[in-house]
Amino acid sequence: MVLAPEFNIKDLGTLKYFLDIEFSRSKKGIFISQQKYVFDLLGETGSLGCKVTKTPIESNLKMQPAKPEEVIDKEKFQRLVGKPIYLCHTCHDIAFAVSIVSQFMHSPEKENSDVVYRILRYLKGTLGKCLLFENYGYLQDEAYTDACWARSKINRRSTSGYCTFVGGNLVTWWSKKQNVVARSSKEVEFRVVAHGISKVLRVKRV
C-alpha cells in the first residue's frame, strides 16, 4: 500500500460496502449497486408490496408549485425526496425524475408526492440490477447529451441532461434545469452540448 510508509493504516481487504454503496468483483469486472439501500427505503415508505412501474416518471409530465391551500407536509416531502437523490450515485436512470421533483421542495403538493412514489415503484423493479465497470480494452471518452425545451411551467426554463463514458463504462451523469430561458430548441441543444464537452474535457484531465 502506497500510504503505509507515511501513515498508520490498516488493510481492510477488498472493498465491499462503503457509504451504502455495495461493491462486488467477478471475472467480468466490478459491480456497483445500492440494493440494500433501495430495499430499506421501500420498507421505510411502506412500498415493499407496491406494483412495479416501467418508468420513473410519465412522459411530458409538467408540474408546478402548489397553491398555499394545496401544500402538503413539506418536511416529510423533503425527507422522501432526499433518499432518491442519494440513489442517483448508482441509479442514473432516475436522475431526470429526481431533478424534476427536487424543484418543488418548498411548495410540494400531492401530485409531486405521487411522482416520488412512482420513482420508488420503479426502483422496486430494478432490484438486482447494478452498474458494471468492465475492461473493454480501450480508454476512449464519449459523451451523450439531450435536452427538453421550455419544460418548466413556472419559468419556461429547459432541462438538460448528459452522460459520459470512459472505456465503454458510464462514469458520470447529470440532469438539471438550465439557468436561463432559451429562445429556441436549438439554443437549448447548444447549451447542453457545451456542458457535455466541458465535462469530457474535465474527465480527460483526471
Biggest β-sheet, characterized?
Answer: 4 strands, antiparallel
**Separation, N- and C-terminal Cα atoms:** 21 Å
How do the strands line up in the largest sheet?
Answer: 1-2-3-4
SS field, number of helical segments: 5
The secondary structure category is alpha+beta
Overall average residue pLDDT: 83
What is the alpha-carbon Rg in Å?
Answer: 20 Å
> Could you list the spans in which at least 5 consecutive residues all have pLDDT below 50?
none
β-strand percent reads 15-25%
By DSSP, the count of extended strands is 7
What's the order of the H and E elements? EEEHHHHEEEEH
Describe the structure.
The protein is α+β, with helices and mostly antiparallel strands. The protein has helices spanning 35-44, 74-87, 95-101, 110-124, 185-205, and strands at 17-18, 21-25, 29-33, 131-134, 141-148, 159-166, 169-177. It starts with 16 loop residues before the first strand and ends with a helix. 21% of the residues are buried. The model has no long low-confidence stretch (mean pLDDT 83).
